Amino acid sequence: MRSPASVAVVIPAYNEEQTVPSVIHAARTLTDEVVVVSDGSTDGTARAALSAGARVVDLPENAGKGPALYAGLHATDAQYVILLDADLVGLTRAHLDTLLEPVVRGDLDMAVGVFEGGGFATDFGNRMTPHLSGQRACRRDWLLQVPGLASERWPEPAITHALKQSGVRWDYVELSNLRQVMKEEKRGFWRGVKYRTKMYLDILGYRRRRKRGKAVPDQP
Ligand SMILES: Nc1nc2c(ncn2[C@@H]2O[C@H](COP(=O)(O)OP(=O)(O)OP(=O)(O)O)[C@@H](O)[C@H]2O)c(=O)[nH]1
Ligand SMILES: [Mg+2]
């Protein structure tokens, strides 16, 4: 049985036409409320997401994962949200339950998914930087008040900071036999390396932006 629309799955997707359909199909085994946000994708991401049964927020300009998430959270009124990356391979309903159940039970305010047994490269990457995981479940209203969410291109450092500051209960949960397509595979080796370098530089700059007051609370 499907759960009511108190749970939405929000998927930021930038040029992910290859993998987003299967992520949506798995998400729709849990809820009809599956929101994909594409901002300026130049491939068929929005069309593929629509065909796979998602609600699509298609923004004209690329602004980053954080602004996309923020727009997606406003496109639903569900109480709980599961955040997923669009490049997952092997996603099943069991992974969604693993993320959501501790939150709905009230044991955690946020569950953060880490890959286990999905392949050396992605397991290793995820184990090195589990705090950057895109797989999470929490209450939608908590996430919406995270300072910087709407303005940070890569929102995970802002979320991590908010988790520490607010003292909410969070923990990692294992997502077995799940992996993602790495940037070097998606974009080609050198473009992938370039994109990855830019991502890490942006993430490393978060603390400085926050201290300068540039990662500020967001207005709806
Ligand atoms: N809407 C939107 N989504 C984005 C943007 N940048 C990244 N994403 C999505 O955010 C998710 C994570 O991005 P990736 O580029 O795969 O980053 P990652 O998984 O942390 O990086 P690697 O492990 O290094 O490949 C994917 O679903 C992307 O499509 C963006 O600018 N806009
Ligand atoms: Mg990825």
UniProtKB/TrEMBL annotation:
CDD domains: DPM_DPG-synthase_like. Its cofactor is Mg(2+). It comes from the Bacteria. Pfam families: Glycos_transf_2. The keyword Transport does not apply. InterPro entries: Glyco_trans_2-like, Glycosyltransferase_2, Nucleotide-diphossugar_trans. GO terms for molecular function: glycosyltransferase activity. Keywords: Glycosyltransferase, Magnesium, Transferase. Residues 9-130 form the Glycosyltransferase 2-like domain. Belongs to the glycosyltransferase 2 family. This is Glycosyl transferase family 2.
